[in-house]
């Protein structure tokens, strides 16, 4: 399971603390080190790191954390970090690709050229029949053109959506992979439409 840049920073803090003190930091020390607002935020980081296999924990012990490796970890040479831009339903600030607030490590085999790539969190079930589920992370290649039938990240009046691309004579049809949903009809003369990228990969957590 991949972890985000911020999650890796928390993991590195735990690991370096262990290397120095031979004991884990407390949740209070983690909270203060990263300026987190609540212990709930700390616990969400720790749960994800545990689910991803990076730490062991005894939740009943004050210093019950232990990194799986006791040396600060570096990014695997078989992975590369790309921008993680948030939820696909919330609009995509493409300029954030240059200066992202967050990143995620993905397998290098997903990157096949020198173009820009980014990742998005999937919200909703409009593409479930293509195996794209709510909570998945999709990997996208940034480009403004696509061929008919490709799955694209479309921006319609400022809102982002993932759909199959079907250009018609005077309109554009965005087709969901869900038989209970109807295609979205877009008239470029009436709506602002652009392509923000095409789908090239998918990552999923089973917990």
Automatic annotation (TrEMBL):
Residues 27-47 bind DNA. It catalyses: Hydrolysis of Ala-|-Gly bond in repressor LexA. GO terms for biological process: DNA repair; DNA replication; negative regulation of DNA-templated transcription; proteolysis; SOS response. The lineage of its organism: Bacteria, Pseudomonadati, Bdellovibrionota, Bacteriovoracia, Bacteriovoracales. Pfam families: LexA_DNA_bind (PF01726), Peptidase_S24 (PF00717). The keyword DNA repair applies. Signal peptide: none annotated. The record marks 90-91 as: Cleavage. Homodimer. Its EC number is 3.4.21.88. Represses a number of genes involved in the response to DNA damage (SOS response), including recA and lexA. In the presence of single-stranded DNA, RecA interacts with LexA causing an autocatalytic cleavage which disrupts the DNA-binding part of LexA, leading to derepression of the SOS regulon and eventually DNA repair. This is LexA repressor. The active site is at 126 (for autocatalytic cleavage activity), 163 (for autocatalytic cleavage activity). Residues 83-200 form the Peptidase S24/S26A/S26B/S26C domain. The keyword Transport does not apply. SUPFAM superfamilies: LexA/Signal peptidase (SSF51306), Winged helix' DNA-binding domain (SSF46785). It comes from the Bacteria. One of its GO terms (molecular function) is serine-type endopeptidase activity. Residues 3-64 form the LexA repressor DNA-binding domain. Keywords: Autocatalytic cleavage, DNA damage, DNA repair, DNA replication, DNA-binding, Hydrolase, Repressor, SOS response, Transcription, Transcription regulation. Belongs to the peptidase S24 family.
